[in-house]
Every structure is written in C-alpha cells, then in structure tokens.
Amino acid sequence: MPEASSNPTGTADSAATASAASTHLDARYGRSPKAKRNNRIIVIGAAVGFVVVFTAWLVWGGLLEAPAQFEAKDTGYDIIDETAVEVRWQFNVPENTDARCAVQALNSTFAIIGWKVVDVPASDQRNRDLSTTVRTTEQAVSGLIYRCWLT
User: Which of 24, 36, 82, 145 is most buried by its number of CB atoms within 10 A?
Assistant: First the structure.
C-alpha cells in the first residue's frame, strides 16, 4: 500500500514555491527590507534638507531685511477740470531725507492719462501731508501715488 501523503492537494508546496518566487522577485527589483530602510532614510534626509533651506530663506528674507524706510498713502483727490486732477497723500519718511514720488491719474478704464514725478525735499518732519496737480489728456476719475523712492 502506498504511503499516505500528509498534503494530498499540494497547496503547501505551491504556497512555498510562490513565497520563494516572491522573495526572489523582491530581491531582484530592490524591494528588500534593506532597500525600504534606505528609501526611508533618503526621504527623511530630503525632508530635513528642505526644512533647513526653507528656514534659512525665511530668516534671510524676513528677519534680516531692513525695515521700510518710508511710506506713502493716498488720502484723496479732487478733479479740477477735464485736464487736471489734484492728488493728496501722506508721506512718512525719516527726517532730512530726500525722496521722489510718481503720481498718476486714471480714467474710467483704469488707463493712465496723466503722470508726474514729484521731488519731495528733505524736511525736519517725519510725517507730512502733500498734494500735487497732475495734468491729464482727458477727464480723470481717480488720482493716486504710483511709487516713491529715496534719492
């Protein structure tokens, strides 16, 4: 009488063969536990490097930057006629500092229809209320400060 097999269907042998094949493929294509650990180390290193560079950029760009030297703020405008507008603004600049401001007039489609560069002479006052008249090519609907810079 033939000996009885402990596994008549052969499922244990096929599971062992599949497991061996899977282990062989994992090793062949770099999916071993060592490769997973190396990948984790690379990802953590890249994340730490990103955080370090980002933090350095924030410190360099934000904390080490000199504070603003001046501030110009529009306070209003008066349309004088079809060819002129008066623009009023507050200017905050350190004492005894010369500056220039570009003032513009806009039409109803926000096109620039008038432009004037105004010299702001040095003064012993830090905060000043200023105004200037800008000539226009057509009826203005607004007047404002475009930009100011120190000279």
Answer: 145
What are the Cα distances from residue 137, in Å, to 87, 94, 102, 134, 143? Answer: 16, 35, 17, 10, 13
Which uninterrupted H or E stretch holds 149? strand 142-150
Please provide residue 117's backbone torsions phi and psi, each rounded to the nearest 5 degrees: -100, 125
pTM score, whole prediction? 0.56
Number of domains in the chain: 2
What are the pLDDT digits (tens) for 49-78? 999 999 888 887 777 666 657 899 999 999
Cβ atoms < 10 Å from Cβ of 122: 13
- In this structure, is residue 3 part of a structural domain? no
Which one-letter DSSP state was computed for residue 32?
Answer: S
